Amino acid sequence: MATTQNDPASSEQPKKILRVGIIGLGEIAQVNHIAMLNNLSSYFLTSYLCDASPQALAHCSNKVAGSIPKTTSNPEELISSPLVDVILICNANAFHVAHCILALSHNKYVLCEKPLALNYRDIDAILAAEAASRGRVFVGYQRRYAQAFLDAIEQVGGMDKVQYARVRDIIGWNSNFVAQSGTFPQKFTDFWKEDTDEMMLKDEEMVRYALEHDYGVTATKEAMDMARLLAGLGSHDLSAMRELLGMPTRVLGASLNPNGIWTTLFQYPSFPCVYESGINSVPVFDAHIEVYSDDKIVRVDYDTPYVKGLPVTMTVRERIGADGYQERLVRKTYEDPYTLEFLEFYRVVVANGEPKTGARDARGEVDLWRMIMRAGFPHAA
């Protein structure tokens, strides 16, 4: 049973505090998750930490507020512990599937950072584990929980007919923003070579299987690198695009460059959508999604999630009367998408609900990656 605590801001029944076990103590856990869970102490308590690095365990234990968490290098020890109600998975992509399935086998809800998986085989294995579990997987597509994005869904839903859409995410290196975040994360190397070798082998097998069995693409180094980028940087944009616009019918063309900027032209039933993304050395975060109709343009602008308090905004530009014009910049809240995402995760868990960004939803990512990769790379023989 989760512990409880009275909420001084509410006259309702005492609120459950969900005890969280974190697997993986790398950059995102240090920059965001641990501090955020500390701030959300009326909802969560970090009770257990797992990492292959003893130094990371010691460092992050000191960052946890409220109590000293237990630590382990064994994910199963953390997942099976009665001191843990929910699991947060933010370790290497190669282990997401195995640890999600293990959490589900213990009937626990798990928030897994994206990507959940790169191929149908692994997604379907998670869905099968869910079918036999009281737990569920909540995938960390945090941009889809931003208030401005939810507002944009309403605005776009009210359009008579979409003419055109653009999805853009061209950013500087994360290190530029992390260095200015005030969180001072550390990197540790005190783990066994065998652990690194296992991670690399699992990652290569996962990507190669996706390319050769699901995408029908020759598994060259360039194709494998591009698949990893789509599952990493690209998954936020493509997931938001799916929720806002639905699935495209096909890809008209794709120029895929894992070492620079890439672009894809999607065809929807009645309009095109351009997706452009990539990383360069200019330290700016140019990420937005924009939808055009005949008399209204709706745009959501995201900033880096590594610096707390930068708002996500919605801009609405529209025709007024015969020849008038109105532009509105809407920022309802400074609450960042990660915080809103974790509050929704809390609501889903205590209600034994189904997350909108669940495993079945994540299967749509594989559909999109397959479409993009088949358009941009030679098919396998």
UniProtKB/TrEMBL annotation:
Give a GO cellular-component term. Answer: cytoplasm
Q: Biological process (GO) annotations?
A: NADPH regeneration
| InterPro entries according to UniProt | Gfo/Idh/MocA-like_OxRdtase_N, NAD(P)-bd_dom_sf
Q: Which residues form the Gfo/Idh/MocA-like oxidoreductase N-terminal domain?
A: 18-141
The name of this protein is: Oxidoreductase family protein
Q: Could you tell me one molecular function GO term of this UniProt entry?
A: oxidoreductase activity
SUPFAM superfamilies tied to this protein: NAD(P)-binding Rossmann-fold domains
Q: Where are the transmembrane segments?
A: none
